[in-house]
Every structure is written in C-alpha cells, then in structure tokens.
Amino acid sequence: MGEATDKLKAAGNKLAGNVKESIGKATDNASLEAEGKAQKVKGAVQDVKGSVKGALGDDI
Predict the structure, then answer these.
(1) Which pTM value belongs to this model?
(2) Where are the alpha helices (DSSP H) in the chain?
(3) Which of 56, 55, 53, 45 is nearest to 1 (CA)?
(4) What's the rounded Cα separation, in Å, for the pair 53 and 60?
C-alpha cells in the first residue's frame, strides 16, 4: 500500500468518524459517539503512516 492509498483511507476514516460522532452526540448515543472518536484516531494514525511512507518510501 502506498502513501496515497494510506492517506485516502485516513481521510475516509476521519470523515466517517466525524459523522458517527456527530450522530452519536445528536441522538445521545454514547456508544456511537465513542465509535466515531475511535475511527477518527484510526484515520489520524493512517495519515501518519502515509506520511512516513512518503518520507521513507513504500518499503517500510
């Protein structure tokens, strides 16, 4: 998986996480809100992974 793929997946997870978190807050669903926050963190980690791959190459 290359840098661009990781960054694209990161953006998707961040977006989906934001949506889940917002819906969880709006519906007073703590579980969905927490799931959204976790998905945003996953996206942030994927973003960092993509950046590292970009700096060091895809062979890491």
Answers:
(1) 0.81
(2) 3-26, 30-56
(3) 53
(4) 7
Amino acid at position 37, single letter: K
Give the CA distances from residue 48 to residues 2, 25, 35, 43, in Å, rounded to whole numbers and listed in that order.
Answer: 12, 27, 20, 9
19-33 burial, b for 16+ CB within 10 Å, e for fewer?
A: ebbeebeeeeeeebb
pLDDT value of residue 53: 84
- pLDDT tens, 1-60? 578 888 999 999 999 999 999 999 999 999 999 999 999 999 999 999 888 888 887 555
Between CA 17 and CA 26 the distance in angstroms is 14
Q: Amino acid identity, residue 15?
A: L
